[in-house]
Structure prediction request, 112 residues.
Amino acid sequence: MADAHHDEAHEDHGNTLAAWFLTLSWIVVWTIAGVAIIVADGKVVLWSTIALVASVVCAVVSGVMKKAGMGRKEPRPVPQTREEWEAARAAATKGKAASAKGDKEPAAAAAK
Prediction:
């Protein structure tokens, strides 16, 4: 279902410069708007509109940054399916059991 929702219109910036710019700019914009509402004049609609417009501008700038090479360069990582996770877990458990068995054999041979 998540794959069906993910399309080209949805930007996935990842842990990149474009993503950090977008996150920090929105924090700054909405903090300024909140402080202005509380301290300055209490015009909620005015400052919310200003913050919304500034947020959209920051999102556009972040999109341009992504297109300029400051976004994700490789495809988005896909989490393992349950079957893949179980197979990897079984292989790891089997590997630990084999290494534990291998450690005991030389000790038994040295005792003879």
